[in-house]
What does this fold into?
Amino acid sequence: MTGAFEISVRDWVASNLPEALVGVRIDMYGVESENREVRDAFELWRARLAAQGWGAPTWPREYGGAGLTDAEAKVISRAIAKSGSMNPISYLSGMGVTMVGPTLLEYGDAEQKARHLPAMARGEVRWCLGLSEPNAGSDLASLNTSAELDAQGWVLNGQKTWTSGADKSQWCGALVRTDRSAAKRDGISFLMLEMNQPGIETRPIRLIAGESPFCETFFTNARARKDDLLGELNHGWSVIKRLLQHERQSQTNAPVSNTTAERLQDVAKRYLGTNVDGTLSDMDLRSRLADHLMDTAAHELTIARIMTDARGGNVEVSATASILKNSATDVAQGHSELLLEIMGNQGLGWEHGEYSEGEARAVREWLGGKAMSIYGGSYEVQKNIIAKNILGLPETTQKG
Amino acid sequence: MAVLTEEQAFIKDQASAWVIDKAPVSSFRALRDSKSGRAFLPQTWRAMVDMGWSGILVPEQYGGSDLGYLTFGLILEQLGRQLTASPLFASSLVGASGLMLAGNAAQQEALLPGVVNGTAILAVALDESSRHQPEKTAFRAEKAGDGFSLNGKKTFVAEGMSATHYVVVARTSGDAGDVQGISLFLVPTNADGIERVALPTIDSRDYASILFTDVRVGSNAVLGSPGECMPVLEDILDRARIGIAAEMLGTASRAFDMTLDYLKTREQFGKVIGSFQALGHRAAAMFSLQEQSRSCVEAALQAVDAGANNVPELASLAKCQVGKFLFQMSNELIQIHGGIGMTDEFDAGLYLKRARVLEASFGNRAYHRHRYAKLMGF
It folds into this structure.
């Protein structure tokens, strides 16, 4: 690692992070802050990062990146995190920088890359993904939304669901059926289309945790340009497999433990008190809490080991993404369940008032976290991937 | 797998090949069935010594190679895979660590060369009840002349019948449960007043119960500062816990490999049984546990080598996580093999039996959960 690079990044962040954001610990919701000053500062910060190519630092310069290595990109995100701020571009691009972009880099032609990537890397265009359908969840390949070519381009008809951020996105990457006579996985293509058109309607979905970023999206003679087919016609399944690998990657790269939060064992001591020897008064909970903390440590040590191994060229990281996705899920859901148990009756509140902000938030996070074992390939789908792709067990008997 | 140095990679490959070729589970089975009363084969131990394994932790001035715990762990993992029986762990890891952490120069000089060349075999005599609980030590050592008189009973002493010397954990003051008052003694096993009895454990390895009746030792037998040995004892035990976790990782990983192989070859209902999702998912869960266990074990071994201050947490973490893996894996080994797994002719039973003995050694999961909670401040 070049020390000089790290210093230059730190200096750049120090002199370019807008005054209003300095020292304010700010998350992605800051981008949509009600405070106008914060919003404007974020816009300025976004523009400066984009000019550096730091919205997607590892992409080539010609497509809005900075042509840096993964290690150098990590130096940048660490420096920004250390400053207490965040890089808004990944969030503003929706599914762009983390998923659609890397897939476009691999499968797109030069013209497609030039047309889509730079705006994505600047955080100016938000992307959503139209993958799941009401009858195609874990069994994604049974999707039914169709696309047919006419003189003006593609015409799409059907319904997508769980299209995260569809109501706020300008572009969509959609998986559609282009050959009904082919076997399930062989008649699928990946199209890119503009969201702002008469043939598309989006409806936000209200979830068990309240408001959500998810939508239902309806295509009624929606239009896509002929040259916005990504990858080969009827070979969309390989495109989507790669895209989902990028998704698992981005999920497992997220840090698990929020270092600024109060440690779970300290919350437990605060709510439940201790025995004279300092041990938690509820011995049964104590034992399960210790188990959970050890599982968390094992998960984090595994991430660290896989990163080290990847640097040494030992393993293909994507092979382990399914293991990490499931253990990240176990750890996060286990944390939420324990936190609610610790809070007891106080962990059952729906609105503020009698319940503290922290208590109400814990409840919403607990509910929202149930999605972790469902999205991005459910817990069970990940186990199928491990069994088949890593362990080499024969494919589970299935049709199609 | 941690990123290894060239030397470590060589030793690991050497150990892996040697264990399969010269000390496979079939030779352990033959030893068990011979009813010779021996818990390991002298030629196996000799070969290990010749390869330098007994000196891996020992400084060069005493004939060792001082390669560290990660290297030792790589070997123990390979031995664990084939259930290879030897005093390597008890003597060259636990015993040697005891001498190096608590012994003075004279004691080290007197005994470490013997540990390295295999003529001395050390065994730690700690447990007194059905549980691992070092702080509850009640075994008495009382001042007698210039030295001490040792009285009491020790049990579940690994390699206790083969050992030439015991490292005895004793109480020179206070009562069971006090942190103060713990002392360590180095006692030759042929001293007057020592009676040892072999324990017929399920894993057919060497465990002894030892009665000490007015065993006299000189002041030169005292390891460390009398009455203040609890901290150094914990340091020694943490190394033992991490080392045994490495062995357990090998045992469980081999059980996993045997099971995976069976899933790919056994056919029922016209299909290989690994194509059934109920079994594939269990294999996936075991594989994930294996990866997490490896992460904990390697981090713990590396922490000892680096002199890190979180060795106690990592020791309990490693013993507990790999304990969970080995417990579940040894049960799955039997269950997924079905009837054949229940037969003595097949190796599954050997792994299951060894698994439970390893689980009880140096603190079971309940012990380490409790200890981890204490270390984490609750």
In short: Chain B has three domains: 6-119, 123-228, 231-375. The longest strand of chain B covers residues 147-158. Chain B has twelve helices and ten strands.
